[in-house]
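Weekly sync, protein design subgroup
Attendees: M.S., D.O., the rotation student, P.L. (late)

Item 1: inverse folding check
M.S. brought a backbone from last month's batch and wanted to see whether the design step gives back something sensible before we order anything. D.O. pointed out we never logged the input encoding, so this time it goes straight into the notes. Structure tokens as presented (89 positions):
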């Protein structure tokens, strides 16, 4: 199936399933996603969100402007600390 044809039939449930598969790196049945499957799934999610969701709900959305313009690292460190995502094991 071509990506365009798939996108026409894509539902919110399929969108959520693809996002979850991308997050976990595997399909709901436990099979690992191939690199090609990840690439195509990510393209589908991005296009679907661009067409159906407001910008603030899309993958990769970051609110506000960049705070690095001209501030020294001492002045901007507390603001920067508040905006950095940190993943814990």
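Designed sequence read out in the meeting:
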């Amino acid at each position: 199936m071509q990506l365009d044809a798939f996108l026409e039939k894509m539902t919110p449930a399929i969108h959520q399933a693809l996002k979850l598969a991308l997050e976990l790196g595997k399909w709901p049945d436990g099979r690992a996603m191939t690199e090609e499957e990840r690439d195509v799934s990510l393209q589908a999610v991005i296009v679907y969100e661009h067409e159906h969701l407001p910008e603030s709900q899309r993958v990769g959305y970051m609110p506000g402007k960049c705070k690095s313009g001209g501030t020294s690292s001492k002045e901007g460190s507390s603001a920067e600390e508040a905006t950095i995502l940190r993943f814990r094991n």
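Discussion: The CA atoms of residues 31 and 42 lie 17 Å apart. The two ends are 38 Å apart (CA to CA).
Action: P.L. to compare against the previous round before Friday.
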